[in-house]
Amino acid sequence: MSPLAPVDYATLAYALVATVALVLHWPVRSPGAAFLPVAHLALVATAFLAPAARRRGSVGRFIGDLYPLAIVTFLYSEVGLLNATAGRIHDLSIQALEHALFGVQPSSEWIRFWPWPWLSTLLHAGYLSFYWIVALPPVTLWLTHRRDAAARVAFLTATTFYICYAVSLLLPVAGPRYLFPPADNAATGVPLALLTQTLLNSAAAWGTAFPSSHVAVAFVASIRASWSSRVLGWIFVPLAVLLALGTVYGQFHYAVDALGGVLLAAVVLAVERRHLVRQGRKGLAKDTSPAD
């Protein structure tokens, strides 16, 4: 059996966390709850089978390196189900911290203070770019034959998702769209704002606001990709900035959620930078002959 890759270990670690949470929160009040233990077993099996897939040519390696990006949406939904079953949130603590830092509740006041349709359209477009930020950088790197870089972006993206989900299981925060009355002005009536609300009403997971996985993952994916491709950085880092602002302006996250996502991204990227420096030093040592 081929050795597991870092992304496989990260997936197995999260599978353990999610399984413990499932046991603690059982029974889950959902029609598909009985499927969750089977899904966890499938997640573990996928992680163990991924090394073999990577030996099966380009297609197998593509699947083996990037498979977590295809499962994070399911895991996101599961976190929402488990938190809804537990029925506890920590929004009041986040709101108190928000007020201590800013003197107001930005996620409630900003869109009311600046109800500008052009700004709303821009920031909602940034928010809706999330899945493009997640998917396109690693896929583009892969298709341009920078496969090791693609695998690292996918690994860091998946790990950031897993960390956010684990924190949400321990510290559920529903978010301002559940606690504050929605704004009703020119900013909320633009087509992209209406589209975003429709999508969230059908697919949002309860209790997953802190830290913002949208913000953390967007910055990790875009900035790490920029280290391998400046073009990807020019495209996706600005989108990540708009997304971070849009999460607060659109009342999807508290400002503290967004700041938590930024801080998590900074930590993940700092660890990755140290890893790359160590790898560079090892490569230099291997390339240096004792006879030189």
Name some characteristics of this structure.
14 helices, 76% helix
Order of helical and strand elements? HHHHHHHHHHHHHH
Nearest-integer average pLDDT: 91
Rg, nearest Å: 20 Å
Helix content: over 70%
Percent strand: under 5%
**SS element count, helices:** 14
Number of strands: 0
Spans of at least 5 consecutive residues with low confidence: 283-292
Q: Let me know the largest β-sheet.
A: none
Based on Cα principal axes, name the global outline: globular
Distance between the termini: 39 Å
**Which structural category fits the helices and strands?**
mainly alpha
What report would you give on this structure?
This protein is an all-alpha fold and 292 residues long. The protein has a domain at 88-287. Helix content is 76%, strand content 0%. The protein contains 14 helices and no strands. The chain is globular and about 55 Å long.
